Amino acid sequence: MTEERRAELAASLAAVEERIANACAAAGRSRDEVRLLGVTKTFPATDAALLTDLGLLNLAENRDQEAGPKAAEVAELRPDVAPRWHMVGRLQRNKARSVVRWAAEVQSVDSVRLADALARAVAAAREAGERTGPLDVLVQVSLDGDVARGGTLLDDVDALADHIAHTGELRLRGVMAVAPLGEDPGTAFARLSRSAERVRARYPEAADVSAGMSHDLDQAIRHGSTCVRVGTALLGGRGLASP
Question: Which positions carry N6-(pyridoxal phosphate)lysine (predicted)?
Answer without folding.
Answer: 41
